[in-house]
Design the sequence.
């Protein structure tokens, strides 16, 4: 796909930022209004910070990286602090970033000590000749770049550890079921934390008409160590191209990898002439279900169209455009 | 992209197998006819074995995995035994496989003890609920599946070690230059082993009309440990879909990842209506060069079209169709 110039806009583009905090099965029956407000407020706060950056002329790349860094720092979401535990009681984190201006990208997988994996992904993009580092080498690269390192236990929280214990008590293997909600403790958020779909991400269109995307995850509770999903895979969980669209995905990672879901949205726009809404719906409601994929994606096109599209019961999501008030949601219909 | 039924063929499809052993800068001036014959004979032998399998009705998946296993076992190519050394004097191997029948896929990255990484990739696909494992966990999974493990030194050869030593003597960092050919020892093959493009791969169309692709690599000489290229990334270095095409790539991995090169060929066919030759040329001669990408790909379409397309000076490559004699080549023009 060409790194072509975006469609010219009359004057300055009205900037857009969209974020997600994962998708999955809802636990509405167990939810309290207070817990819901906590999630919505966290997303709104991050959108407002990004809106201020964009209004000040910040680049889309800087805005998505900062939004994902804040999502990583927020314990509510499964990325960075608050990441889920592997079956071995450890944390393994993955992240990626892509700059639509030049199709540059960076990714890390299986980091265990780098406080903000999205910053490591950006450092790989900007300060190495490579795109992806894995494991201890990724942490070492991040440390050499001056990025904060933490003890692995820093990522953990009481709530996440309780999730692991429940998973290990109720399942013999990795977490597969989306049922049995009665066993979920009150520590869970509105979306079933035991589903495989914990990820955070951001996409932005800046005032100069450039696009960027970033994605980060703490993996899946009780997963087998060493498993990598779509979050650090360019074209699967993350893609940005000024000629078409910026996309960040969340869901059953393997299906998004088999579908090349993020790039597929871009390809449908570039080659089949679909607008963003049609392209996102084709991927989320046709291509992903064909390979058993559950989850969703957020996307913003070069023309400023927004899609927040999912085939699961819910997705933590929000967006802000220009100087409008942010919109945030968990349940309900997909779309802007 | 849909996992649709392949285009119906009049009777049984004439099966096709294509393989590559890497692409890059040529060292023709330093080459001996004997050395060239050694490379060509190795590829021809592997094609003949695959041809026999296909004639006996073997599935494309089995044929590409076996072809790549043989390429891994061959010291001439940078995958499995004969893999290049990292800057740390170690070996890190990556592989992937995809089955066009159902879009199932498997991958491993950073394995150091599994004798045949392509078999590990297949095992991940078939015997786990995941798609990708990295590092020691990938080796452990392979071992638990009964796949042969070796001491890391098994992958090394005298010739590869000499390459590392030369690289470390002549460069301060990773191997970047494609010049200075006078310093290349006679141990090199026809293509400059110091280029970043060592990979092997196979694509096949079987008599039932199914497609499959597999890719494997030993990485790049003197690379920073932990770097992962396109070879284990579904959509970048490997893709197969019965509705369109099977693709295996080789080249400067980062560019293939940024381009989602393998999936891009499929998308151009499915969405833009290009035939295989046009789609492969668009990717290899337009999209990849736009991001600095050098190398090539092999592909076979659901209709039996073959493309062996590269923008570098040479690519070890060959193909066989039905009961015809295999065709193998190193230099020259791309195409069947």
Sequence:
């Amino acid at each position: 796909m060409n790194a072509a110039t975006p469609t010219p806009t009359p004057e300055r583009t009205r900037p857009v930022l969209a974020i997600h905090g994962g998708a999955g099965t809802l636990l509405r029956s167990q939810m309290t209004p207070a817990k819901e407000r906590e999630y919505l407020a966290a997303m709104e706060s991050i959108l407002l910070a990004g809106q201020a950056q964009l209004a000040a002329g910040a680049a889309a790349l800087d805005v998505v990286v900062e939004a994902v860094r804040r999502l990583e720092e927020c314990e509510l979401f499964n990325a960075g602090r608050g990441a889920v535990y592997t079956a071995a009681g450890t944390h393994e984190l993955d992240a990626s970033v892509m700059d639509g201006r030049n199709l540059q990208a960076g990714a890390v997988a299986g980091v265990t000590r780098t406080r903000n994996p999205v910053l490591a992904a950006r450092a790989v993009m900007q300060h190495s000749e490579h795109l992806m580092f894995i494991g201890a080498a990724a942490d070492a690269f991040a440390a050499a770049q001056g990025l904060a390192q933490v003890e692995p236990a820093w990522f953990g929280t009481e709530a996440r550890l309780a999730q692991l214990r429940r998973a290990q008590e109720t399942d013999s293997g990795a977490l597969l079921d989306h049922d049995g909600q009665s066993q979920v403790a009150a520590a869970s958020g509105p979306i079933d934390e035991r589903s495989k779909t914990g990820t955070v991400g951001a996409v932005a269109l800046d005032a100069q008409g450039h696009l960027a995307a970033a994605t980060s995850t703490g993996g899946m509770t009780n997963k087998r160590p060493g498993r990598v999903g779509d979050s650090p895979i360019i074209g699967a969980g993350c893609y940005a191209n000024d000629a078409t669209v910026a996309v960040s995905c969340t869901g059953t990672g393997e299906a998004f990898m088999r579908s090349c879901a993020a790039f597929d949205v871009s390809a449908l726009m570039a080659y089949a002439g679909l607008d963003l809404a049609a392209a996102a719906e084709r991927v989320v409601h046709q291509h992903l279900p064909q390979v058993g994929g559950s989850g969703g994606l957020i996307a913003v096109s070069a023309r400023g169209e927004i899609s927040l599209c999912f085939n699961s019961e819910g997705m933590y999501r929000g967006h802000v455009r220009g100087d409008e008030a942010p919109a945030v949601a968990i349940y309900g219909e997909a779309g802007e």
About this structure: The first strand of chain A starts at residue 16 and ends at 24. Confidence is low (pLDDT under 50) at residues 172-187 of chain A. Chain A has one domain: 10-329. Residues 10-329 of chain A form a domain with the Glutamine Phosphoribosylpyrophosphate, subunit 1, domain 1 fold (CATH 3.60.20.30).
